[in-house]
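Entry 14. Structure prediction run on the chain below.
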Amino acid sequence: MSGDSWTDRIFGGFKKTSERLSENLSGIVGKTRLDEGQLDALEDALILSDLGPRAAARIRDKLSAERFERGADEAAIKQAVAEEIAAILRPVAKPIDVVAFPRPQVILVIGVNGSGKTTTIAKLAHYFQELDYGVMLAAGDTFRAAAISQLAVWADRVGVPIVTGPEGGDPSAVVFDAVKAATDKGTDALIVDTAGRLQNKRELMDELAKIRRVLGRLNPEAPHDVVLVLDATNGQNALQQIEIFKEVAGVTGLIMTKLDGTARGGVLVAAAEQYGLPIHAIGVGEKLDDLRPFDPDLVARVIAGVA
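Output returned:
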């Protein structure tokens, strides 16, 4: 895929966020420094654009110390905001690397039902294939028949093997079989779907703990990654999910999906500032190649409206 079309999709994906921030920032102009009232208005604008109170306070502090030599017009303020958003995003922009030895790299994928978890697994498998890695899927969400069949359809579409078990079966048994199969074949990456029931945290915690025990017996390093899929359209709710899943599942990184034109893209910045977890990739559409590692500088410029 050409870089241009990906850049275009990033523009499209963050369009509403950018427009919303521009609207909220309009009218904030100052001389060489912003006064307290202007800084308050700036902070409010950032919070209203889903960047979250922490990131908003950090950007405000930074801009309070900024000297705008040519005057603080809209362009200068947006440029300063973009630079600070980039500073928040750069440390967390970390693509998943397949480095496990011995293979496979076991990636547990978690997330609430409806977050785009299944399609994200397919996109991640496709992304790894493009990097010439062998991939296998495991249908560890055994509580929903739809989850197993949906993942099987995607596995077929992407052209990767899948290990499944009976509906209502023991997820850790599926994971056990999958790790053995992936190890025997020398598969590079095993991506495991898991149940997304947050209503009963204890049950989910027990299930994930059991999966971890089974993995540990086969490969003490596994799981190598516990990736939480977040739906960006959920805005601040996505942050609560990080909080809960960190406690329940020991999340090691995030993938942000559905950044396809909704006005909630700022939550990416809020998640980075509040949790500092690696953000491995972002999804900006429905196609298989719509999931990519993100360029923090580009995303910062697009959100701030200076790209």
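The mean pLDDT is 92.
Filed with the rest of this week's runs.
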